[in-house]
Amino acid sequence: WMSFEDDVEAILDLKQKRNAVILAHNYQTPEIFHGVADIVGDSLALARRAIEVEADVIVLAGVHFMAETAKLLNPNKTVLIPDMGAGCSLADSITPEDVALLRKAHPGVPVITYVNTSAAVKAASDICCTSGNAKQVVESLGVPRVLMIPDEYLARNVARETDVEVLAWHGHCEVHELFTADDVRQLRENHPGVTVLAHPECPPDVVAAADFAGSTAVMSDFVGQQRPARVVLLTECSMSDNVSVHHPDVEFIRPCNLCPHMKRITLKNIRTALQENRHEVTVDPAIAVAARRAVERMLAI
Ligand code: 13P
Ligand code: SF4
C-alpha cells in the first residue's frame, strides 16, 4: 500500500509540474482509473475529449492506437504511452496493403476503419468508427454497401442492425472472441434474473444471446440508468471493477477476460513516463494528414 500511495502522489505532482493530463480507457485498473486519470471513457469519448485538452503533455493510459489517435488530434502536443508494447490484436490484424487489396476487390465501396487500427490503416480508409457509433457511421454514408474493417464480429453485429450491406475483414479481439453463447446460457442458469451486457466485439451469437450490446461507455451508462439487480458485463475484467464502484447496490457477476495489452499500463510506468518523458508517440506526417481526416470525419457526425 505504501508504494501504491507513493506512486499516486508522485503522479499527481508530476502532472502539475509538467502540465500533463492522463487519459484512461475504461479497461484500466481502478487505481489508474479512479486514482490518477483526468479523463476516462470509451474509445469514442477519449478521441472526442482529446480535442479539448489544453495541457502540454497527454499520457495515454490505454493501448497504442489510442495514443496515436490522441496524437493525430494534437499534433503539437507531447503524447506519451507508458509501454510501447501495449498493442491490440485487432490493430495487428490488418495492414495498409490489405486495405489496398480490399479496395481493388470492391471498387467504389467506402472503407470504414474501426479506431482499433494503426494510423497507417486509418490513412488508407475513408472514415473511422468506434463501437459507440458504428451503425451511425455506416448509415451516414448513404450507400448500399460498405467495408468495415478489421473486426469481423463488430461488422456482423452492425450488419444485423442496418439495411446497408456490411462487408467484413477477419480480425478479432483476443479478449472478446473468447465469450461463447454457452457462457450466456450458463450465466442465466446459475444467476437467475441476471442482465447480460455484451461488447459488440463479441461473436454475433453472444450478442444475440445477451440482453443488450454496446461500447464500454454505453454498458456503463446502461447500469447507471437501468440499475439492474444483477448484471454481467461480457468484456474486459477492469470494466466491472470500475463501474461497480459507483453502484454498490448492483450485484456484478464476474466472468471476464483480461486484455494483456491494457494491463501493461501500471502506476509505476505512468510515473516513469512523466518523469522521463517516455515513450513519445509520433505519427509520420505523410500518414497523419489522411489518418486525421478519417478520424475528424467520424467526429463530425
Ligand atoms: P470501447 O471502449 O470503444 O467500447 O472499445 C473497447 C475496446 O476494446 C478498446 O480496446
Ligand atoms: Fe484490442 Fe481487445 Fe485489448 Fe481492446 S480489449 S485493446 S480490442 S485486444
UniProtKB/TrEMBL annotation:
GO cellular component terms, A-Z: cytosol
E.C. no: 2.5.1.72
Residues at which [4Fe-4S] cluster binds: C88, C173, C259
BP term (GO), one: 'de novo' NAD+ biosynthetic process from L-aspartate
Annotated GO MF terms: 4 iron, 4 sulfur cluster binding; metal ion binding; quinolinate synthetase A activity
Required cofactor names: [4Fe-4S] cluster
Pathway given in the UniProt record: Cofactor biosynthesis; NAD(+) biosynthesis; quinolinate from iminoaspartate: step 1/1
Name the record gives this protein: Quinolinate synthase
Organism for this UniProt entry: Rhizobium grahamii CCGE 502
Lineage per the UniProt record: Bacteria, Pseudomonadati, Pseudomonadota, Alphaproteobacteria, Hyphomicrobiales
Gene designation per UniProt: nadA
